[in-house]
Specification:
Number of domains: 2
Largest sheet: none
Helix content: 55-70%
Radius of gyration: 19 Å
Distance between the termini: 26 Å
Order of helices and strands: HHHHHHHH
Number of strands: 0
């Protein structure tokens, strides 16, 4: 039997959804990095694994059970991802870009890194929009077809096709999105606000932080729950 130290970060996040907040707190990558063990993840972050184990033990036991969306079957999970996480990106992205525009106009002269951040977030948002279309038009229909639940307008995939290659491509794009988010955090000094920053700048960092946390959950559900189920079809 595996000990919790030898469980992967993704497995822990599935079995104990409340652990996600703990991983966010210590910036432990449980989505794209979900295949690494807890021990390896802590070593990479120079965090004592015992410290994380103690905090995991303090998580409310009723939150340690895999609950929705982790108990959803693949068809339901795809609908959940599309209705919640995909819709969030499409809704929140333009709002953040508009806030960036205001902050850059007012403060980029003194803080030029804001222009670089704005460009990076625009690139990230465009990438994610294209990525989600691939999932919604190609990968998700392919999964439905293999499960015998194709919709009338779904693109048909060749008989006998396996999903390893398209899933691998989606994981590569997830890693790129993660790198862009990491770069945003690095450039901003971990979203540190300068003294006397205006409320709009404060709101911008709050919006980006919420976007990042939602993206982590989104990628976790796909990389560590949906995709393994799809590959096994």
């Amino acid at each position: 039997m595996k000990t919790i130290k030898s469980l992967t970060i993704g497995e822990i996040a599935i079995e104990r959804p409340a652990s996600i907040a703990l991983f966010e707190k210590y910036q432990i990558d449980y989505c794209c990095g979900g295949k690494q063990t807890l021990a390896a993840a802590c070593e990479a972050k120079n965090i004592a694994v015992e410290k994380i184990l103690i905090e995991l033990q303090n998580i409310d036991s009723e939150d340690n059970i895999g609950v929705d969306p982790f108990q959803l079957q693949p068809i339901e999970l795809m609908e959940y991802i599309q209705a919640n996480h995909h819709e969030f990106i499409r809704t929140a992205g333009p709002v953040i870009l508009e806030t960036f525009s205001k902050v850059v106009d007012q403060h980029a002269g003194k803080h030029p890194f804001l222009t670089e951040m704005s460009t990076l977030f625009y690139e990230l948002h465009v990438d994610l929009l294209q990525h989600m279309l691939k999932e919604e038009k190609v990968l998700f229909p392919a999964i439905r077809q293999l499960m015998g639940a194709a919709k009338p307008d779904d693109m048909k995939i060749p008989d006998g096709m396996k999903l390893n290659f398209p899933v691998s491509n989606m994981e590569v794009e997830h890693e790129r999105a993660g790198r862009l988010m990491d770069e945003l955090r690095r450039i901003s000094g971990n979203y540190a606000l300068p003294e006397g920053s205006c409320i709009t700048w404060q709101n911008l960092y709050t919006q980006i932080d919420a976007f990042e946390k939602d993206l982590h959950r989104h990628v976790h559900l796909e990389n560590n729950v949906l995709f393994p189920a799809a590959i096994s079809l």
